[in-house]
Design a protein that fits this description.
Blueprint: H1 3-12, H2 26-38, H3 49-57, H4 80-86, H5 101-110, H6 122-133, E1 154-155, E2 164-169, E3 173-182, E4 186-194, E5 197-204, E6 208-213
Antiparallel strand pairs: 1-6, 2-3, 2-6, 3-4, 4-5
Helix pairs in contact: 4-6, 5-6
InterPro entries: CHAP_dom (IPR007921), CHP02594 (IPR013423), Peptidoglycan-bd-like (IPR002477), PGBD-like_sf (IPR036365), PGBDSf (IPR036366)
Pfam families: CHAP, PG_binding_1
Organism: Chenggangzhangella methanolivorans
Amino acid sequence: MNVLAIQQRLKALGFDPGALDGIWGRQTMAAVKRFQTAHGLHVDGIVGQATTAALNAAAVQGGPGKAVPPILEQGQVDPVWLVEARRWMGLREIVGAASNPKILEWGKAAADWFVNDDIPWCGAFVFGQFAAVLPDEKLPTNPLWARGWAVFGRGLSKPSPGAVLVFERGPNAGHVGFYVGEDKTRYRVLGGNQSNAVTETWIEKKRLLAIRWPSTVALPVPQTVVVKGGGPTSTNEA
């Protein structure tokens, strides 16, 4: 999903999204809601396929010759929290006593006792993405507990891009991240605290505990994303 193109389209249609910065913020989400209300769409602030089609079809005011923003792509649209998560790819912990300020921000928002990025932060990362783009979504009481995400939102029988995947990690520990693809035996997961950074990694399907989806967003059409190519399989994400 091209957030900047959506912002440009909304602005041209008279629905002010705030700064045209390519970042999915609350002003952009509010502009989407106003557009959806005006066009008789389900009002959730999410640019899914129906809203994308309506944005493409809506007439831009201003007469002939007015610049029209790029037409948005049809087809599968990544959910906004996955778009937000991709912005942080490569973000790493700071070795030693210091902590990465962004990781610290996510962690402290999730729990007051989060004091440094040596504390497992996969749950803080997932929490941070939803908190940024879905302000009405009910999040886990203890989002730093990875296994606690197994009761978040609603369950899915099959994953779709952006679905929350919860994995076991030993008898009591866990890991949580976002589905971006799979092969025959593994899921491709975008998450935090993977090799001490925000990365994509492979995790065996047999470790899966739950597939979850936010309750304030319409359920997705299940979409299997087959990822070709090798790469190592993660066995311990802490």
